Amino acid sequence: GISDIHIRATVTKKGDSLTVDLSDSHAQVIGFVNSSFPNTMSAVHMALAYLIDPRTPKNEGTFRPVTVKAKEGTVVWPYPPAPVTLSTNHCAQEIAEAMIKALAMSCPDRVLAGWSRRFRIAISGTNPRNKRKFIWHLFHARGGGGASSAGDGWETAGEGQAAGGIKFGSVEVAETRFPLFFKRHEFRPDSAGDGRYRGGVGSVLELRMETTELALGNTAGDGVRYPAYGVLGGKDGLPHRYRMISRGKTRVLKTKEVGIPIPPGALFLVESMGGGGYGPPARRSPEARAADRVNGFVSASKTASKRDAKPPHRGRRSRRP
Q1: Residue 87: C-alpha distances to residues 115, 262, 305 (Å)
Q2: pLDDT at position 316, please?
Q3: Are 208 and 245 in contact (CB under 8 A)?
Q4: Is 103 found in the same domain as 116?
Q5: One domain, residues 51 and 120
Q6: Positive or negative, the Cα torsion across 243, 249, 254, 255?
Q7: Are residues 57 and 124 in the same domain?
Q8: Given 95, 119, 167, 222, which is the most exposed site by the fewest CB atoms within 10 A?
């Protein structure tokens, strides 16, 4: 079934030291999103690296005043042999986000909105061009980065724990090496969270299988149920939406599936999440909004709906007797 796994962070400052308490986080789970304690510490340090002065070196001495507390048997410090395969993605990103949210009001000029989360598809099958087995991992269709006081989020930057540092390969090379056809690979309009500074937009990918035999897929990641969060009045981005269309039927893909049958000619429609916005949307400049329209980050229909929206009623409400 689908269930929420919570990460709760309490951050306390005393003198020149910080204590980060993650003890109230969810119990460890049977899936591969548990985080070993060293990975949890790294996620905490990563969050602080986002928030401190960028000129400050990021080394062991920098984080020496930080104490991380956690409870054994939880998702942030599981008992062995709990699986932790995806922990550098999830729940590392969620740990960092919990930290950033906890400190948002303490450093509003440094806080950043939520980034996209990872959601990848792995496909295995037989390439009809050379009759050889293949395995291909989806690194395309990246999601958007979160906005901050520095400006808009990066478009299609990818997940937050990598800060845009994961590259995807050439579309043309992928089509040459694998039985794939990239029908469309472009920005996803209206996916970013609105705000004084807009989140980065996600991507749209239409990918057709050129196999002649049944292939298999599996997924790993997050970001379908909850979007990238906005901060300080900024709006959330749109979540991921991954679908597979075959023989007139549509299958919505979950973030953790194994052994998905992929018929020949199946079409994947991948819509990746947009980043969260920073600050009240009313404070976004007309020039920035005009640029959003010109660049295709915001559609004409969304612009029209905002223009035609009626202001909220400010009069007094009558009460029923």
Answers
A1: 17, 27, 40
A2: 40
A3: no
A4: no
A5: no
A6: negative
A7: no
A8: 167
The terminus-to-terminus CA distance of the chain in angstroms comes to 47
Domain that holds residue 236: 112-304
pLDDT range class, residue 5, cuts 50, 70, 90: very high
Closest by CA position to 227, among listed 160, 166, 285: 160
- Could you give the CA distance from residue 277 to residue 234 in angstroms, rounded to a whole number? 4
Q: What is the pTM of this model?
A: 0.89
Look at residue 160 in the predicted model and tell me its pLDDT: 87
pLDDT tens for residues 40-51?
Answer: 999 999 999 999
User: Taking the alpha carbons of 7, 13, 18, 19 in that order, is the dihedral positive or negative?
Assistant: negative
Average pLDDT over residues 163-184: 91
pLDDT of res. 200: 98
Domain end: 59, 87, 109, which one? 109
Asked if residue 316 belongs to a domain, the reply is no
Residues 143 and 256 reside in one and the same domain: yes
* Domains: count for the chain: 2
